[in-house]
Structure formats: C-alpha cells, structure tokens
Design goal:
The structure holds two protein chains of two kinds.
Chain A (H helix, E strand, L loop, with lengths): L3 H8 L3 H34 L4 E6 L5 E2 L2 H6 L4 E13 L6 E7 L3 H4 L7 H10 L2 E5 H7 L6 E6 L9 E10 L11 E4 H7 L6 E2 L1 E6 L5 H11 L7 E5 H11 L3 H30 L1 H9 L4 H34 L7 H4 L4 H27 L3 H5 L3
Parallel strand pairs in A: 4-8, 5-7
Antiparallel strand pairs in A: 1-10, 1-11, 2-9, 3-4, 3-6, 3-10, 5-8, 6-7
Helix pairs in contact in A: 1-12, 2-9, 2-10, 2-12, 2-14, 10-14, 12-14
Chain B lengths: L2 H14 L5 H32 L6 E6 L12 H8 L14 E12 L6 E9 L3 H4 L4 E5 L8 E5 L2 H4 L8 E4 L2 E10 L9 E4 H8 L6 E5 L5 H11 L5 E5 H45 L1 H9 L4 H31 L3 E4 L2 E4 L4 H28 L2 H6 L2
Parallel strand pairs in B: 3-8, 5-7
Antiparallel strand pairs in B: 1-9, 1-10, 2-3, 2-9, 4-7, 5-8, 6-7, 11-12
The chains are: A alpha+beta, B alpha+beta.
Chain lengths: 382, 388
Amino acid sequence: MKYIPLVFAGLWRKPTRTVFTFLSVMVAFILFGILASIESGFAHQIAIARLDRLFVDARFGGNMPIAYQNKIAVLPGVTVVEPTIGLGGYWKDRTNGFGVTMADERYVQARPEYHLTTAQMREIDRSRTGIVISRKLSERYGWKVGDRIPMTSTTRQVDGSTTWMFDVKFITDNYDFPDVAMFALGSYKYFDEARAADKGTVGRFLVRIADPNRAAAVGRAIDNLFANSPQPTRTMSEKANAEAGTASIGNITFFTRSIISAVLFMLLFLTGNTMMQSVRERIPEFAVLKTIGFSDTGVLSLVLAEAVTLCVLAGVAGLTLMKFVVPPLVKGLPGNADALLRMPWSAAVAGLGFALLTACIAGFFPALRVKRLNVVDALAGR
Amino acid sequence: MGFFGQIGTVTKLGFSTLRSRLGASLVVVIGMGCAVGAFLSVMSLSAGVTSAISRGHADRALVMSQGAQFEGASSISRTNVGTIADSPGIAKAADGRPAVSAEVSSNLSVVKKSDGLFTYLEVRGVGPEILSVRPEIHMLQGRMFRPGKFEVIVGRNTPTLYEGIGLGDKLALPQGDWTVVGIFESGGDMLESAILTDAETLASALRQPAYRSVWVKLQSPAAFATLRQALISNPALSVELTSESDYLRREGANITTILKVIAYVVGGIMGLGAMFGALNTMYSAVSNRRVEIATLRALGFRGSAVVFSVLAESLGLAVLGAVIGAVFAWAAFAGHLQSFGGIAIRLGVTPGMAVGGILFAVFLAFIGGIFPAVKAARQPIATAIRAT
C-alpha cells in the first residue's frame, strides 16, 4: 500500500504522455463496450428463444386456414395452439411504421414473458378495437392508454376502407427484452370480421409443447399433417428461428471479435510503447531504488503496477461511460439501436479482464528490463 | 539555402534518425493501420449493398397497390393487371405486346454452405415479357424455364452460396419438385440471388388468385409521369407507381445507413485512439531530437522548417499505416461473396473508400503532429542545445 504514491509519481512524471495514453485506452474500451454490447445483444436473443415454443408458418409464403389449429391441438405433447396474423401499416406518416399482431386470450399462455392477463385479452376482444402496446412503442409515438390510433394499411375492410382504428387499452412489456420490445396486440376476432378478403386465415400458429426435447419431433408431426394439403406448413422452434435469423445478418461474432482483436492489438503497442519510453527515461532512478534496497522483483512489480494502474483506470473510465453515459444518449435512435448498446455487466467484467491482460503483456518487457538492470552500469549512465 | 531547401534538409535529417525511434514510430503505423483497416472492412459490406441496390434503371418502374411500402404488402388483381398493361407510356415488347411483368412470389428455404443454417430465398414468378422488362437477364448455363412446367432458373450467386441449387437439381416448391433448368446473370443486381419461374404456373401452384406487383418497362424515363398520371386518374385502379431506382434506394437506405454508421463509429473511435498514440509518438520524437533541432535552429534554420519536418514525419508514418490497413482490408474482403439477409452481397473496397480512409489518417496525423511540431520549433535554443 505504501508504494501507491510511488506508482502515481512514476505515471505522473510526464503528464502529457500519461494523459494521451489514458485517453487512447479509454476510447478503445468504449469501442470494446459497443462491440461487446452488440454481440451480447444478439446472443441474448438466441439464449432467450425457447425450444418449447414452435412457429408454424405457411411453407411457401401466404396464410394458412385457421382450421389447422384443431388438428395441431390434438397432437400428443402440444399444450397451447395460438393462431396469430400480423397487420402492418403506418400512423399519420409513412415513416411511422408499426404492426399489430392479432391474437386471442391463448396468447397469454403462448407468450408468458409478456406478463399479460387473460382478463386483459378478453377486454381487447370485447372492445373489438382495443390493443395492448409495449412501453417502447408507447414512448416512440407518445401513445397513452385511452388514445385512438388510426393505422393506414393496404388491407381492406368490409366497408372498403383501408384505415383501421385502434384504442390503446393497456401498456405492457416483453420482460425478456424490457424497454426495447416493439409490439402491439389486437383482437383476431375483430380483425377477421372486419377484413374484406382472406377471412379465416392465419399467418402463424404459436405452439407450446410440454417437452422441449421433442421440439423437432413435434415439428415434423405438424408438418406431416399438412404435407399433402394445398397449403403445407413449415414448423421450427423459436430457438432455431432465432439462430437462423441472427446468422442471416452475417456472422456477427466473427465481425465483432475481429474488430475487438484489432483494437486490443493496437492498444498493446500503444501502452507497451508508453511503458518502454517511460522506463528508458528512468533507468538511473530505478538504479537508485535498487541501491537503497528494492529487490529485483520489487522494481519489476513497480513497473507492472504502473502499467496495470494506467490500463485499468482508463478501462474503467471507458466502460463506465459505455455503461452509464451512452444508453441515455442513444435513447432516441431509430430501430433497436439502443437495445444493442446496452452493455451487460458480464461484458464490463470481460473488458476489465482485457485491460488487465493488456497491461501485463505491455508492461512485461519494460518490467523485465528493470529487473535485470545492472546497478553499477545504470548509475554510471552506460 | 531557400525555405524549401531548409524543409528538405530538416525532414531528411528527421527520417534518417527514424531508425533509433523505430518502436515508437510503429505505434503510429499500427494504430492508423488498425483504424483504417477496420473502417474499410465495415465499409466493404456497405459498398456491396450499395452496388447491389444502385442498379436501378430509370426506364423501369413498379406498380404496387396504394399505400404499399414494399412488394410483399402489395396485391393486384388479374383484371387490374390488364388495365395497367393498356395504360400509356409503357414500351412494347418485340411481339408488340406491352412490356410488363405481373409477378407473384414464394420462398424456398435453403441451407447456407457457409454455416449450415437455413435462410429464405425469394422465388419470383415473372410474366412472359420478362426479357423485355429486364433485358439484362442472360442465360449463363442451360435454358429458360417453360411456362406450365415446374421449371425454374436461378441467379448465378445461388449455386455458390447455398446447398442443392445446381443445374438439374430438384427444388421443393409448391405442389412438388421443380427442376433447375438454367442459371442466369442479371448485371450484378439483387435478382442474381433469386429464383425465377413462370408467374402463371407459380400462381396456380400456390392457388393465389391475385398478383403481387407489376413491373413495367417505360418508353423512356420521361414516360414515367405519363404512366403515373394515367394510373392515378383511372378510377378502377388504386395503385401507385415507383421508379425502380427510388424503390431500391428506399429498400436499401436503412441497411446502408446502419452499416455506414457502424463503419464511422468504429473507424472514428479507433482513429481517435490512434491519434492519441500519434501525439505521444511525435512528442517523444521531438523530445529525443531536442538537441538536434536546437542545433539546426542555431545554425539558422527557421522554426517553420522544423514544424514542416515534424509534420512530414507524422504524416509519412500515418500514410504508411493507412495504406497497409487498406491493402489488408482489400485482400481480406474485396470480391468476397457473402449471404446477407437472403441476398448475396459482393463485398467491395473501392479506390474512393481507400482514399477516404487514407485522408482520414492524414487528418488525424496532422492533429497528432502539429502540437509537438510547434513545441519543437518554439523551444528556447540556448537551454535545449545544452540538454543531455
């Protein structure tokens, strides 16, 4: 503990150099934080996706008859079948796009992470035009409970209109993606009665199964039911769907890790160079320290401690900015950009680990040089 | 000795002692190399998307139902297709019929060769006049599909990227197996990642009564207004006309914006880090050369010559690093074919991007060099020359 002032005195010997090194390490860890957040955001989507929830879609696009639900429901292992269909459009201006998933009270069991109640879904059905919206959607357009929202769509109603009216009844959230999920739920019954064409069709069945290990088998059983019908299905677990969806954007892990490697590589040279310069200038001083009784290991530890202090402090500064300052700044960004910039604590800890590792590698050779210092030569300036 | 002569001499002297400052100088080279390399790597994806979507033709346009933002949200009835085809402004095909292609769509789930995961490919049913609407389509292998048969032709990118799509392969599409009878190219646009077949055959296999959208070839780019007016004023229709360029730009705007933002954020932050590294390096270089610089000043060299020489060193190192970074990004990514959200993207590192990256490095190196340079020129000669 008593050597701490010595460590700081060493670092502060050339303030400009230390400050610049500190700043470059800090911005490098901000970038690390951004990339680690993006990576963990996508990993979270896959991790949270369930194996016991299946998506049944029309194999070649389009919709399926709602009657499929009865055939699926009687398959062994199936616990819930929920027919859904999406209605997309915009509010006031084309840039204000949003969608409403038409569902019924079985949605509560199909998606327990939404924290909906059966009573709420019954109220949606009863009021016909009622919708439940997510907090993010409510913030995005400033919609409150009681607001009446017109949606301009391309889906025609029986009366010829393509504008659908919705009443915000409840605001909830997807607790697997708190604050960032964008969704609205409406009444399938109302939608099906009101639409002019394609009545009695469904875009996707959500199917819950009792045993997650049988996801593939139940999926095959569902697809076999309709294999020879005019509208065959394609069933996939939510997990498989998330994996494929993430992969279709490109290899995100490869992308983020390549850039993180480049950042750390650059950092290694930067801090290594700073420590090397700093040590070179102080050779006589280290010789004095050794003369007054510091051991070889002692001076080695001193140099390593300087490197670690510099890197870890700068790393903490960068990661703190990323954790607490950046999220409020990006709240207004379109899409789910803010969702991707939330750094989990695990990434912060990993970041600190990398800061420590960088410091140890970068400080190693300068420290070794000091350890091997020959006192007589060094004092003589040789 | 003239001013430029002075700059030359001082700069030469600086570079000649670079060897002794090799470690510190490498920091600038590596820092700039990493920053520019990372920037160009992300930009190569953006450039790939841009080049795929920027191939819109001014004399081609798309009819969708009123309010539809994209083809998937549009639906056009058979009778309306006839009305649209008879409207003014549409070019005539070789057989004298209007050059329109009423299209339907389906999808095929395929397995990517790269990671074994599935993705969806677009299957587009096109009209009999497709070659008049899209004259850039050329068969590379095999032949065109025949209407009424379960036959498809595939874009030239698909056999490379996905399993089980080659000449003669059977694809599991509606109502059974469809045979791949040809492979086509389409001038590098997004159709090269799609599968084409006859619209009527696909629509009846899907039991779809309506078309999705209608592509038209205009008599000239100027005919766009004529056709648009005719479509809007026809009370039987509720459709809108979008030029192909506008449609593609709208489709791709989001994704290219996101990629550009990522490239600028990544490149910008790494560049900032590299700039601080350059500042460090140049300050230490100036401090090492203190006696040498003071001696030159005592001999009558001007301070501005010293400033130029320090800047030249900083810029030289940065440009070297940036070029290495650009070459690395080019060698690693340029020309690679990658499946990106169901379309094949050919990554590209254009000379413009590379020059942009190098100029960025020059800008950073200027900031990283100017402060140390001024400090070097301003130091009092008398004390500096005695320093050890």
